[in-house]
UniProtKB/TrEMBL annotation:
Name the record gives this protein: Letm1 RBD domain-containing protein
Entry keywords, A to Z: Membrane, Mitochondrion, Mitochondrion inner membrane, Transmembrane, Transmembrane helix
Organism: Colobus angolensis palliatus
Lineage of the species this protein comes from: Eukaryota, Metazoa, Chordata, Craniata, Vertebrata
Transmembrane segments: 141-163
PROSITE patterns from the UniProt entry: LETM1_RBD
Amino acid sequence: MALSRVCWARSAVWGSVVTPGHFFTRRLQLGRSGLAWGAPRSSKLHLSPKADVKNLMSYVVTKTKAINGKYHRFLGRHFPRFYVLYTIFIKGLQMLWADAKKARRIKTNMWKHNIKFHQLPYREMEHLRQVIIFNQDLKCLFLGIISIPPFANYLVFLLMYLFPRQLLIRHFWTPKQQTDFLDIYHAFRKQSHPEIISYLEKVIPLISEAGLRWHLTDLCTKIQRGTHPAIHDILALRECFSNHPLGVNQLQALHVKALSRAMLLTSYLPPPLLRHRLKTRTTVIHQLDKALAKLGIGQLTAQEVKSACYLRGLNSTHIGEDRCRTWLGEWLQISCSLKETELSLLLHNVVLLSTNYLGTRR
């Protein structure tokens, strides 16, 4: 009796009268026929949780890009000068991140296959060299220190705007700033060229062989008169730079400081440390030269050629690509002819080969 009342009550709710005996049969039929009480169900299956998350992420990314685009248009209309700096900053971060990822990939490959630095292809070797120099740059350390106090980050942005050359790396320079700053840096190292030539003249009496004394005197005279030396004029002195008095370990302290400035290295460190940095820098350039000779200068882009020339002492920002390739070919002929014990000549070649090259700014 109680069961009958329950069945009749449920029938009233469902809107149809059924007998208690047919209740379970009717429910089974409805389930099999796909009918449902209330609104009809969609034939689509529910998405999995992973698909839901993917759709949500896609929606967030789309909205973020739209908002970012509106923000860029707002800055471009109302703050055009700030927008230029903002764009350069964002692109600089992207380039910096891409360089870091590439350097990590190269180092991982070196570790997996037990490859040394000098065994890398030229472009990978050059990329690692640039990353290592960036890691040793004291600009980032200075910015990190002054940004430690609360709210000091606003001061950092102001200093970066006022002193971009002193506080920013090349990733955050405008194209015009890159040209201007490279000119400034070359002017710094060019100031040391006459000083280095004078030190070479002072050691001429210390050279035992008369033929080497004559060759070095003639080379210094040509450079002082504005003549670009020939390759054989420089290679004739290779023995002179392998030991006393012009080997790296035998150079005077002031001579070492002048060479450090010519290589855009700080000259305020103790002479033993300066000698170590000069030998390390020269060895890396020598290894790069061997890799570049194997690759071939013709495989380099115009920007890679200019960058390679600037690293080796030539102000390539105002020289045509053909002249840069010619000069770089002369450098490689000299570098690939030298042994490791003669790298002091390669170090001085930064001055000897670049001072009077045609097309350079005086």
